[in-house]
Amino acid sequence: MFSCFRNLRVTRSVISSSYGGTKADCFPLRTPQPSALCRTPHRTCSGSRFNVPPSAEFVARVSGIPTMAKLPYQETADGLDAAFIGVPIDTGTSNRPGARFGPRQIRVESAMLRAYNSGTRAAPYESLMVADIGDINVNLYDLKDTCKRIREAYRQILATGCIPLTMGGDHTIAYPILQAVAEKHGPVGLVHVDAHADTSDVILGERIGHGTPFRRCVEEGLLDCKRVVQIGLRGPGYSPDSYSWSREQGFRVVQAEECWFKSLTPLMAEVRAQMGSGPVYLSFDIDALDPGFAPGTGTPEIAGLTPIQGVEIIRGCRGLNLVGCDLVEVSPPYDTTGIHLLKYFFSYSLIIIHTFIFSSTGTTALTGANLLFEMLCVLPKIKYY
Ligand SMILES: [Mn+2]
């Protein structure tokens, strides 16, 4: 655990050594007074046996290093019941890139998250020890090597008994994560929320990419195919029945058209019956939502799910034996009003200004952060009031 004083000393020593100064002249006016820093309650000093994020009633939302949900950061999953992890890649994308920035922007926008779920009365921080354990050290030049690194890292995370809540990153990451998950739990059920089936065999000659992860998972026996549901699939296809391969494997496919104008709460009752008591992985591609709500993503398709339906799906997973969850494909550079693209044609300097301003709106990342919080709230052993 860090103390305020220890952090202050580090800051002061770095400043004084880099300027060649001494303790006596290390910028007393610029260095925050200890009392000012220590008025900030520490993230773990709540008196609870669990990590509890600081409340914005007492700590400004915009202060501090932006970890997921303002939770403490730690380097490993040791001692945790659940952990947020970033996998910052977009080298598996087939269209717009940018998902490598997803984990960062989700963390920034997660400053709005609070400790309780007002809708369901879940109290995750009274139930589980949760922290942000940073990002996987991916290789942005080699997707296969990245998959290997992800698999190895998740093996270690899962070995501690911790449930991973992953911030993508493009959807390629579900494949190596599920390799590690199935190694521990055996073939798992899958709740896959997405605009796309992600079951292509080969794209541009490559077997690894964000359009192929669930084909690879089936080939390797990582999924209990009778306990797989894909929700929200839509968009133009390469053939009249784009989802026949999924159905042939035994997946339940719920196309977006079946979701239009409906609450998905009844569907989720059926999904819970399908999943039973066995281990289940939840993989949520933000492009399942309509791009009007979540424009910041790589392969948008119109006429998608609403954020309300997304929340209904996740809340409908309460009671499942969830062993891992991910939220993928948030691409902050496209999480914009689009205005900066118009400005591009007028002035190079303006594009810098407007890219900065409008890329900072972060609505898709904000939605992603909230969906991840909803996932945390339906993990096994969560206390509800
Ligand atoms: Mn996907």
TrEMBL record:
Name of protein = Agmatinase, mitochondrial
Q: Name one GO molecular function term.
A: agmatinase activity
The record describes how the cofactor is bound as: Binds 2 manganese ions per subunit.
- Give the stretches traversing the membrane: 345-373
* Single GO BP term: putrescine biosynthetic process from arginine, via agmatine
**Annotated binding of Mn(2+), by residue:** 171, 194, 196, 198, 285, 287
Keyword Zinc-finger found: no
Q: Which InterPro entries match?
A: Agmatinase-rel, Ureohydrolase, Ureohydrolase_dom_sf, Ureohydrolase_Mn_BS
Its family remark reads:
Belongs to the arginase family. Agmatinase subfamily.
Sorted alphabetically, which NCBIfam families does this protein's record hold?
agmatinase
Q: Which domain of life is it from?
A: Eukaryota
Looking up PANTHER family in the UniProt record yields: ARGINASE/AGMATINASE (PTHR11358), GUANIDINO ACID HYDROLASE, MITOCHONDRIAL (PTHR11358:SF26)
Keywords from UniProt, A to Z, are: Hydrolase, Manganese, Membrane, Metal-binding, Transmembrane, Transmembrane helix
Q: Which Pfam families match?
A: Arginase
Q: Which residues form a coiled coil?
A: none
Cofactor(s) needed for function: Mn(2+)
PROSITE patterns, alphabetically?
A: ARGINASE_1, ARGINASE_2
